[in-house]
Amino acid sequence: MTSSGEDYFVVRKKKDQRKKKFLAIISIIGFGGSMLFGAVGTIQRAMQNPQPQPASVSVESSLQEQAQDYELVLRREPENQVALEKLALLRIKLEDFQGAMEPLEKLTNLHPDRQDYNVMLEQVQNLQTESDR
After folding, report:
1. Residue-wise pLDDT tens digits, 68-102
2. Tell me, what DSSP letter sits at residue 111?
3. Measured between alpha carbons, how far is 106 from 100 in angstroms, rounded to an integer?
4. 128 with 101: CB under 8 angstroms?
5. Which of 11, 59, 110, 123 lies 20 to 30 Å (CA to CA) from residue 46?
């Protein structure tokens, strides 16, 4: 009688495994089909209505927006080293050398041991004098 009880559990376990495999396969097919259906629809819409790239967004305006964001950070945290560095670099890219000197001077005062800030400040001062000519 023990062997028939064990046989029952073995047969039942096999049936459960087959059911699990069947459900897994159906789930995978359903998931793949829904992904394919969504991708095909998206690709068709993209091909029918290509979105033109906005011409009004320029690199300079993007840099100016980033600079404004760093200025907002500095209003809350006037000694934020990262914000000061990034603001100075953005203003240099925008060729606003006078505006870049303020955060660089603050950085050199806050971190007198950092020679790179001193060198950068000197370079910006030289660029400012050259642009004034």
Report:
1. 999 999 999 999 999 999 999 998 988 888 999 99
2. -
3. 10
4. yes
5. 59
